[in-house]
Amino acid sequence: DTGVSQDPRHKITKRGQNVTFRCDPISEHNRLYWYRQTLGQGPEFLTYFQNEAQLEKSRLLSDRFSAERPKGSFSTLEIQRTEQGDSAMYLCASSRRTGTEIYFGEGSWLTVV
Amino acid sequence: AQSVSQHNHHVILSEAASLELGCNYSYGGTVNLFWYVQYPGQHLQLLLKYFSGDPLVKGIKGFEAEFIKSKFSFNLRKPSVQWSDTAEYFCAVNAENTNAGKSTFGDGTTLTVKP
Predict the structure, then answer these.
(1) A66-87 burial string, b = 16+ CB within 10 Å, else e?
(2) For residue A105, which of A7, A36, B32, B47 sits 20 to 30 Å off, Cα-Cα?
(3) CB A21: neighbour CB atoms within 10 A?
(4) pLDDT score for A1
(5) Does residue A44 sit at the B interface (CB-CB below 8 Å)?
(6) Mean of pLDDT values over A71-88
(7) B49-82: per-residue pLDDT in tens?
(8) Of B50, B38, B42, which Cα lies nearest the Cα of B94?
(9) 3-class DSSP state of B61
């Protein structure tokens, strides 16, 4: 399967620790998106990249969050000094630049204890 | 900014029953509309989308949705559900000519189909 893959699928961390999630998009897709989803809610847009350029960030993305896509392929989402409120599913998706359909990965669950 | 409201949080149906899931959006301009489905243990996937043209859109697995502009609605329908339709369904909207990946999602409706 050459879909969007995310790693790790689950992460439990202590409050105050840093965590990093990785996303590998579909290879020919040059747009990559990060979302956050909490229980009982739909995905919320965080940020997106076109190739290596981060073109937009949501107000939800606090200063403790940083995302990179250094070579325009995989992306990482780092959360520094985690808080309990960061506990959520972090979803990655990708699309072609002119695509009207986005393809989601299975997500990375974060639990901050 | 857009917002999406899905009125039913959890719907339980028996096989062969008809399905209609409500979706209303709030936005003053022209929109693109989507329904996504997430089967248990799987990733979100697109069920159907509306950009323009015929307001009755047909998607995969026998699903369809009707865009009623005057009601700001995009309800999802299926005439006869199957046990395999058990899943969570999300409605999403974005402004015309914006990136499909920047959609605003509703909070989802969990559908349970009893065999």
Answers:
(1) ebebeeeebbebebeebeeebb
(2) B32
(3) 24
(4) 52
(5) yes
(6) 96
(7) 999 999 999 999 999 999 999 999 999 999 999 9
(8) B50
(9) helix
Task: Provide the 10 A C-beta neighbour count for residue B52.
Answer: 9
* A46: pLDDT strictly greater than 80: yes
Question: In this complex, do B101 and A105 lie within 8 Å of one another by their Cβ atoms?
Answer: no
Query: Do strands A10-13 and A44-50 pair parallel, antiparallel, or not at all (unpaired)?
Result: unpaired
More confident residue, B44 or B98: B44
Task: Select from A42, A99, A105 the Cβ nearest to the Cβ of B106.
Answer: A42
Contact at CB, A104 and B44, closer than 8 angstroms: yes
Taking Cα atoms as reference points, which of B10, B6, B15 lies closest to residue B79?
B15
Chain B CB within 8 Å of residue A93 CB: yes
Residue B1 has pLDDT above 80, yes or no: no
